[in-house]
């Protein structure tokens, strides 16, 4: 998701900290359908009716915050914010008509709206969970503190709204007059609304200057709670048409709907490459030298010798990998997707990976590792933000029939299983990788080779699919970020590239593969659903979706994180 500069005060810091949660609003059926231009009028009317209640709650919160403010300039600033909302309420009917819609009938508040309005009212009244605020706000400081808390509860809503609508506006053709929600989107992308959001943040920064660390923590909690309530508000908006999100809702277990999720491990699930971690275990667990000068039982090298050997292996791997990429990308770029050309190129990578693994085995760097050391290292392995939470939600979702498969070049399946064990039952995770040969819980230095090339990954992928139940509707999602994932990404119904993955993209573009940001791809798919009347996920050949985080995948497949 794109960045947005909102200053260096507490408002900017909190937005930067919690901005990633905006994906759970962006990927709601409401906003995906709205961005596609085919959100039903009834759904939009329902939203408008609930939004009026929120505007009234904001106006009331501002009124209470103004009463609490001690400084005359602060009171005036809050009063101006309240006047802005009151003007919006007065002109609301004419704005709705200007956007091209009939006025909605008045509707009762939904549970999500009630929770949001109650939260705003309670905060502005000084009733803050876990915070000791006197029943009577006696001193000017106590009152000013509540004003700051109130602005902390309001600020994320306005920033989130401006941010998401700009994300959507970037997908629209400025000359397209057929998009029925374009005027509404443009309104919330206007300089006027951006200035309003910035004034709230600027005032929050001002009111927070004299607060203690504990009081700033309260603002952070309120800010985050408001973000979560905003997610719940938009997630609860009723959608009467078919929507492509969340993906899990399109699969009905009652009629055999099943989701198979495949992912790579290194640099997709993890923040670091596992080969370097295994080498580091070997280095730090080896003695510097035997006291009597004799060889150890497995004739292991000293720690210093091992580090030197590993550094040389790593340098050679990097150099030959880059040479392999250069030799392929210096050829003429394909004008259209060339699967055959890609497969020929990947054969070079297959030979390269196998030769590199053979050098590692021959060097002896993986000899003498204790299995328990490997498992402990796996448990301490740093996973990408959101990865563990996503896997946990998939495994615990009783309304979804799903299987998770990890396909990895990693040399040790135990490392993967240990790393992901905190996400749930390891037996429910299907790990397909190489293994380290062991005798008496100690590695021999040999690799039991199962997956060393893109072709072997693809074969494992297809074998898994061939063994599943043929009845019902099945969808496959593959998540990866390395060259070795390319064939599986293309074979899956939905191929998702994690992170920047510069080498994968460079190679893919060489053979005509298109890389489309997932959100814009979903908007296009939503248009297709309405126009064609089908949500068939078998993509145009040679198209992959891109994401920057696991939160995007979570929002796409499962919806809200709450």
From TrEMBL:
Residues 29-125, 150-236 form the Thiaminase-2/PQQC domain. GO terms for biological process: thiamine metabolic process. One of its GO terms (cellular component) is cytosol. InterPro entries: HAD-like_sf, HAD_sf, Haem_Oase-like_multi-hlx, Thiaminase-2/PQQC, Thiamine_Salvage_TenA. CDD domains: TenA_C_AtTH2-like. This is Thiaminase-2/PQQC domain-containing protein. It comes from Gossypium davidsonii.
